[in-house]
Amino acid sequence: ISVDLSRMDAILRVSPEDLDVTVQAGVRRKQLNEYLRDTGLFFPVDPGADATLGGMCATRASGTTTVRYGAMRENVLALTVVLADGRVIRTGTRARKSAAGYDLTRLFVGSEGTLGIITEVTLRLHGRPEATAFAVCAFDSLKGAVDTAIGTIQMGIPIARVELLDDVMVAAVNRYSKLELPEKNTLFLEFHGSIQGVAEQAATVQELALHNGGNDFRWSDREEERSRLWQARHDAAYACKALRPGCENWATDVCVPLSRLTEVITFIRAEADQSFLPAPILGHVGDGNFHMALVVDRSRPEEIAEAERLNRLLVTKALELGGTCTGEHGIGLGKMEFLELEHGAGIELMRTIKQALDPHNIMNPGKLLGPLTPL
Amino acid sequence: ISVDLSRMDAILRVSPEDLDVTVQAGVRRKQLNEYLRDTGLFFPVDPGADATLGGMCATRASGTTTVRYGAMRENVLALTVVLADGRVIRTGTRARKSAAGYDLTRLFVGSEGTLGIITEVTLRLHGRPEATAFAVCAFDSLKGAVDTAIGTIQMGIPIARVELLDDVMVAAVNRYSKLELPEKNTLFLEFHGSIQGVAEQAATVQELALHNGGNDFRWSDREEERSRLWQARHDAAYACKALRPGCENWATDVCVPLSRLTEVITFIRAEADQSFLPAPILGHVGDGNFHMALVVDRSRPEEIAEAERLNRLLVTKALELGGTCTGEHGIGLGKMEFLELEHGAGIELMRTIKQALDPHNIMNPGKLLGPLTPL
């Protein structure tokens, strides 16, 4: 049995003066932000796709703006959840913080539907920045681009977005979105703040980029150009698929401590360069998170095997360096073996919780924790 | 049996380049910040007391800087926990975000020792700000002071601290800490950022304060004076007790949506003014959280009853307005009845989790969820 909440698409309440909103689970993020347009507020979490907010909670989504505004984990105040036995609970209040009992909200955020069905979501909102600046910068080396992102965070600059597209990805995006970016390792940068604050942040990052071989720093004042470039960034998955018509993306999703990011990306770039699969890289590099899109023909077992081999190499390396197998895509069916590697005995605790809350294993059975024996 | 972790006080690892640290549970926050002094980093969560970091995790602590840097909830990356059956688990990695399975870290943060014993903590660190500015501002009315704090947050100003001391509290603090502050409703304000950024934030807030009847805006450049005032703020609990030697503070701890804060504070101030108990108010007003310190002689049942009456009035009002019975102090034994009021059916879910993880009820039995029948 599958459950479809997409028609539960009502925005139930907005309180601009409290910077919060309550929506039904099927509301999509673009719908919400259009609704908020006149309030001066917005909901920042941006995974690219126009996902439902219930789905974004269930998968603990994040994305391009998480480096500044946090992930779903930080931006959900409360949930309404239908439990396996039909009880309906409310997991929190509208207070911005609370020490009242177990954090049920964050237990359900990221549980991928295996503990209950999220039906309503109360979210934190943020004020639209007074000023926004956007820049694209091409670098001589992959290392220079990644080091610039890392340095920005280490310096405490509250950058709003810092996205890496490696040279392979820029080529794919140019082709798909009809752009003419230099086909080099590139950062897309966005700054939010006061007019002065944005200028100050941007000047510091530009200096850092120059130091790291980023000579080609281009500012964009025009809203239209900026939208076009972000749209191209968000269409990157399509751009990858278009490299091989009829094929699918197999996206990796590791996230590592910042200081190890350059090492992990250059390692897997070199490995992928030896592979017969196209493998563009893009990443939320300010968080230590990136994706390699392995473009595979799923009808050919040798391609699947090659994608699995590269992904296993990458995940093993990321875990060794203190990272996680998935920064934002979740476990689902595809990453269950790595969940075990990453959590060790913790996975038994997850199973105990699952069995206590859903003893008949009716909530998204088989996902995240694998087959469970109903009690 | 009680467990004392205070001698587990080793700092195990610091990675300045990753802005994180791992400590044993008995390390205290001042010890950690002294250790970090040369790195340019600090751990911001500041509940006033020099608490252990394990304890701060267990109670989901927050405090004066949470308005800018978040609470323990936002600043813990991973925990090592000893479970009731003796298994030891690690709840996360050093990655800044993850979508790998249930959020065990945040299940233990705030569980008050009832699900397991936290032995090690991996924390996020933050860069020390380039510039800091500090100001004290006295207001004509309680409403003016609270409205200024609320407006600051609504405008998106990243203020580092915004603490209210009502006139009763300022009088107590003056007496205890030998200060000469005007005995009016007062905000202590702190700004962190670049030199320009701090000046800009401070100018905006000063204008807002003036608009709300805050005519007495005093800047302090001197580190010594600033430390003396923050020390006085942190000693406020002692200042309250000193109002009636031999008595104890009965501290309330509600947290409400920002727009309701003025209503709640002025409501309970008026009620307390009719009471025979001294009742100074201080608060982390940027988060919607405040404390009223009812100074009671615990040997006199009528005083306990009066404190309970005022606290019940306040909590009932806060819950009505979408708030929580405890912003940061936790449930313990004293707030169990309100946990039930606040969470409804959610409390049954908490009991289910407790019984699944600690079937023999040996972990801090009786706290938070009350007496439970061992399975």
Explain how this protein is built.
- The first copy, chain A, has 375 residues and is of the alpha+beta class.
- The first copy, chain A, has helices spanning 29-35, 53-58, 66-69, 72-75, 104-108, 142-154, 167-177, 195-211, 223-234, 236-241, 261-273, 301-320, 336-343, 346-357, and strands at 11-15, 20-24, 41-42, 76-82, 88-90, 117-124, 126-127, 131-139, 161-165, 185-193, 216-220, 248-251, 281-284, 289-296.
- In chain A, the strands form three sheets. Chain A has a seven-stranded antiparallel sheet, sandwiched between helices. In chain A, strands 1-2-6-4-5 form a five-stranded antiparallel sheet.
- In chain A, a hairpin with a 4-residue loop joins strand 1 and strand 2.
- In chain A, helix 6 crosses helix 8 (195-211), helix 6 (142-154) runs antiparallel to helix 11 and helix 11 (261-273) runs antiparallel to helix 12 (301-320).
- The longest helix of chain A has 20 residues, at 301-320.
- The radius of gyration of chain A is 21 Å and the shape is globular.
- Chain A starts with 10 loop residues before the first strand and ends in an 18-residue tail after the last helix.
- The model of chain A has no long low-confidence stretch (mean pLDDT 96).
- Chains A and B meet through strand 5, helix 5, strand 7, helix 6 and helix 8 of A and strand 5, helix 5, strand 7, helix 6 and helix 8 of B.
Beta strand % of chain A: 15-25%
Low-confidence stretches of chain A: none
Q: What best-fitting shape of chain A do the alpha-carbon axes yield?
A: globular
- The percent range for helix content of chain A is 25-40%
Give the termini separation of chain A: 20 Å
Largest sheet of chain A: 7 strands, antiparallel
User: In DSSP terms, counting alpha (H) and pi (I) runs of 4 or more, how many helices of chain A?
Assistant: 14
User: Which class best fits the helix and strand makeup of chain A?
Assistant: alpha+beta
